[in-house]
Design brief:
It is built from 14 helices and ten strands. The chain is α/β, with parallel strands linked by helices. The strands form two sheets. An eight-stranded parallel sheet has the order 3-10-9-8-7-6-5-4. A two-stranded antiparallel ribbon has the order 1-2. The longest helix is centred in the C-terminal third of the chain and has 19 residues.
Length: 325
């Protein structure tokens, strides 16, 4: 189990915030597979205070996905605090401060991972947000801005003192992006530096990875990002392994039903035309590793609605079912 402030979760594996991925439909699907906590896409604090429609859309929620965490980014303490107040009024359960996004459009404003190079500003932000947000408060950070300047353990201590209830550490440097292999020993060092729960993140692509991360680093929870795209069943498999049960891979029927349900939810959330465009990219992930997936991907561009999705999958999955087992 994992406890974040006043919130007791029913397990220790959670879904990471991912731009363009962790919208409401995906969160609902993953929640159904056993994620204990799901995160919104990262939300601009400034965009939220200006009530921008696109930003507000990131915070649409459904009772079936709760508890829900919102992640905000920004560089201005009072703006971040105002955003926290607005999210609290919406009734969300957890607020996370983004201290890890390495994308230039975020860091050039002094937000995201840029705050690792400005710890004083980060702590000012955290204190203002803490005053404005009465619920569980977390922060997600990277190892540091660039190698070999490891600052995460010290910043973690400062964040704890500023009132954060839990931390997530992605053990790459901001300048690394997603290249190379994450250094899980950094998770262990951050865990040793604080008394609040620490959630590990980075290179968890199989259920065995999550178990190993928890055992080798001592972290209290594991956050999964890219490992859940196209493989949302990983949450169920981790819970099965933790209970001593052999993890079961989805069969073709379950995989197909999941894809259809995801498309239906996306259509309801965004409309069929946009859902079809989004689904084309997701289908690359959902069929990764399956036989002849390249052949199926050739038909993905023709998917425009639920009917054409069914047609493409009828052909591909029928061929798979005819394969010798």
């Amino acid at each position: 189990m994992l406890r974040i402030g006043s919130l007791q979760l029913n397990h220790w594996v959670v879904l990471a915030p991912m731009a363009g991925i962790t919208n409401l439909p995906f969160r609902l699907m993953v929640k159904g597979q056993g994620a204990a906590l799901v995160f919104t896409e990262m939300v601009s604090a400034k965009g939220l205070t200006l009530k921008q429609a696109r930003t507000m859309g990131y915070l649409k929620t459904d009772p079936m996905e709760r508890p829900l965490a919102a992640q905000i980014f920004g560089s201005e303490p009072l703006v971040m605090a105002k955003a926290a107040e607005l999210i609290w009024d919406m009734g969300l359960d957890v607020l996370d401060i983004n201290v890890g996004c390495p994308v230039k459009r975020v860091t050039k404003t002094g937000a995201g991972a840029a705050l690792l190079a400005s710890p004083e500003q980060l702590i000012r932000i955290t204190r203002e947000v803490r005053r404005a947000w009465p619920g569980p408060l977390t922060a997600k950070l990277r190892a540091g801005w660039k190698r070999p300047e490891l600052v995460a353990p010290e910043i973690a201590k400062q964040l704890e003192e500023a009132g954060v209830d839990a931390l997530t550490i992605h053990p790459r440097y901001a300048k690394d992006g997603l290249s190379g292999k994450s250094d899980w020993s950094i998770i262990r060092r951050v865990k040793a530096s604080v008394s609040i729960p620490v959630i590990g993140n980075g290179d968890v692509f199989r259920p065995e990875d999550a178990i190993k991360m928890k055992e080798t680093t001592g972290c209290d929870g594991v956050m999964i990002g890219r490992g859940a795209i196209g493989n949302p069943w990983i949450f169920r498999q981790i819970r099965d392994m933790g209970a001593g049960t052999k993890p079961i891979k989805p069969d073709l029927k379950e995989r197909r039903e999941f894809i259809v349900r995801h498309f239906q939810l996306l259509s309801k959330f965004t409309g069929q035309e946009r859902a079809a465009r989004m689904m084309r990219g997701l289908l690359f992930w959902y069929t990764k590793g399956l036989p002849h997936s390249g052949r199926f991907r050739g038909s993905i561009g023709r998917i425009k609605d639920i009917k054409s999705l069914h047609q493409a999958m009828d052909t591909y999955f029928a061929a798979l079912e005819d394969q010798p087992q």
